[in-house]
């Protein structure tokens, strides 16, 4: 048992420990009896104990609270005042420290990043009203260096502390990191503090580093009551309506319109509302006189709504008479954007309103071409029903592998041998490995022997890439094998090569020899027999590289 006596003769509650370090004992006395750690002096047998010493029971100790005299003590007491007393709201510890001469405005420079480096700022951040009053009564400064207690109180929503600080003369309009106390209150939604600051004369129209006032911040964050309070005090409207519309804050938008927000702010706000899909706000702004064809970032409100899939906004704009064929800098109308993004309902609304389905963008693509390229079947169906040209779209669908759309377009009468970038639809399908589309095109009677600009047919592309199913389809359809066997060998696809050899019964003798050579993996014989297959239309020579690829693959 450790017994501890104060200089006054009063005994503190005994400590039930057999052995304890002096450091830990001081922390215990601070927690249990509000004795500041940095002021404690423990004396045993007339000697002052060091923090690293150990005390073993039974033992009687005398506790003395020293005054602040040295620079080291001043620093230690200041740190304890900020980091312990103010942080935890220990008013009694703070009182002892202040009475002993601790610096009430001590600025801690050690590792504090979460609110306040002075005792007053930290107490204001943590919401310790008693400690705030104690420090102010002791003469602590409300504003020092870059520490402003009112900013912290306003940001955290501590209304009573904010009132105490305002009464103590805290600077209401000081900017810290670009914002005033009123801006913090407005941004965080602390209505009572905002009202308190406004009643105290805070400047309601100051701007932060981004040019935003308290009203703009409140409107952006959706704090309706603060917006109402600021409007009642005559705050400048600025761009508040734009931020309210962008954020979807209906009631705030209504308040701002009623307060007189109009003109360019109203138009830009309308564009943002259309882009974000805030239908009710868009309606309010249209009723307030917003331009239905207003542009934002190179797109009209209708284009924004269409590209984002906001069907209700699109309906609202069309009913208001918005230009349905207005195009952006890329030549894309609302219908083209809807087709690209796959917004079926939007596309239906635009077509019903008479949007031009044949309009082409700067890439010379129509809405149907975009829908076919992206695989949006339902939109393609809507567009086909209008009678728009569909042949070119077939080539895009074939290239991208959208078989359902390809079937739809063929049924609608699309030209089956349509060309795109030097290839027919069948060539695109075969070279990209789209088996189902290849089957569709062959069944529709597509020319199986057309060649691309490099002289390659569909079967040559399929053979070289090893698409066995497509090669089989083309062989069964009677495609001219020609150089396909050479390309199958060159591409290293023995299965396809065998299929092509089997497809030419008129070369039985050469075919048998080639089969034997392949089984023996005889590179020289394979090369000789392939070169002999002139009846198959092969070019002269296959090349050692292609043969070796075939041999290695087979091995």
Can you put this structure into words, describing what you see?
The structure is a single chain. This protein is α+β, with helices and mostly antiparallel strands. Among the domains are: 1-66, Ubiquitin-like (UB roll) (Roll); 481-555, no CATH class. It contains 32 helices and twelve strands. The longest helix has 18 residues, at 71-88.
Count of strand segments: 12
The fraction of residues in strands falls at 5-15%
Low-confidence stretches: 533-555
Using the CA coordinates, give the radius of gyration: 42 Å
Q: Helicity, in percent?
A: 40-55%
Average pLDDT rating: 89
Structural class: alpha+beta
Shape: elongated
User: Main β-sheet: number of strands, strand sense, barrel status?
Assistant: 4 strands, mixed
Distance between the termini: 88 Å
Strand order of the largest sheet: 1-6-3-4
Number of helices: 32
């Amino acid at each position: 048992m450790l017994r501890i006596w104060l200089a006054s003769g009063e005994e503190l509650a005994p400590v039930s420990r057999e052995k304890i370090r002096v450091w830990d004992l001081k922390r215990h006395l601070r927690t249990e009896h509000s004795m500041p750690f940095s002021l404690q002096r423990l004396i045993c047998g007339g000697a002052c104990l060091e923090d690293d010493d150990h005390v073993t029971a039974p033992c009687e100790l005398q506790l003395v609270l020293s005054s602040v005299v040295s620079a080291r003590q001043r620093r230690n007491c200041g740190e304890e005042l900020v980091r312990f007393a103010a942080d935890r709201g220990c008013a009694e510890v703070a009182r002892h420290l202040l009475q002993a001469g601790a610096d009430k405005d001590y600025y801690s420079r050690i590792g504090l990043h979460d609110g306040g480096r002075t005792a007053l700022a930290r107490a204001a951040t943590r919401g310790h009203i008693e400690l705030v009053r104690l420090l102010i009564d002791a003469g602590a400064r409300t504003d020092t260096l870059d520490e402003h207690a009112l900013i912290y109180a306003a940001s955290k929503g501590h209304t009573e502390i904010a009132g105490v600080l305002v009464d103590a003369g805290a600077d209401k309009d000081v900017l810290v990191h670009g914002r005033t106390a009123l801006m913090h209150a407005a941004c965080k939604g602390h209505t009572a503090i905002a009202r308190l600051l406004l009643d105290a004369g805070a400047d309601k129209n100051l701007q932060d580093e981004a040019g935003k006032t308290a009203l703009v911040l409140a409107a952006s964050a959706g704090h309706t009551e603060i917006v109402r309070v600021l409007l009642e005090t005559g705050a400048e409207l600025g761009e508040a309506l734009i931020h309210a519309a962008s954020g979807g804050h209906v009631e705030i938008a209504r308040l701002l319109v009623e307060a007189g927000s109009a003109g360019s702010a109203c138009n830009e706000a309308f564009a943002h509302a259309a882009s974000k899909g805030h239908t009710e706000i868009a309606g309010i702004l249209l009723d307030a006189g917003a331009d239905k064809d207003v542009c934002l970032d190179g797109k009209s409100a209708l284009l924004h709504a269409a590209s984002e899939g906001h069907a209700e906004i699109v309906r609202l704009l069309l009913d208001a008479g918005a230009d349905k064929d207005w195009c952006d800098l890329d030549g894309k109308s609302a219908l083209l954007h809807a087709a690209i993004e796959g917004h079926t309902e939007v596309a239906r609304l635009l077509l019903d309103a008479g949007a031009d389905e044949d309009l082409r963008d700067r890439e010379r693509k129509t809405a149907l071409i975009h829908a076919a390229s992206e695989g949006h079947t339902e939109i393609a169906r809507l567009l086909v029903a209008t009678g728009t040209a569909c042949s070119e779209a077939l080539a895009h669908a074939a290239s991208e592998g959208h078989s359902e759309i390809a079937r739809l377009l063929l049924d609608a009468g699309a030209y089956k041998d349509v060309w795109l970038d030097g290839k027919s639809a069948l060539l695109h399908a075969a070279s990209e490995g789209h088996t189902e589309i290849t089957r569709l095109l062959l069944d529709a009677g597509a020319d199986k022997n057309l060649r691309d600009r490099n002289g390659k047919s569909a079967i040559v592309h399929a053979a070289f890439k090893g698409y066995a199913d497509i090669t089989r389809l083309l062989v069964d359809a009677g495609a001219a094998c020609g150089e396909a066997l050479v390309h199958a060998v060159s591409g290293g696809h023995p299965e396809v090569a065998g299929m092509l050899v089997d497809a030419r019964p008129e070369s039985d003798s050469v075919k048998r020899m080639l089969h034997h050579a392949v089984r023996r993996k005889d590179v020289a014989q394979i090369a000789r027999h392939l070169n002999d297959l002139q009846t198959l239309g092969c070019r002269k020579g296959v090349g050692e590289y292609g043969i070796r690829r075939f041999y290695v693959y087979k091995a």
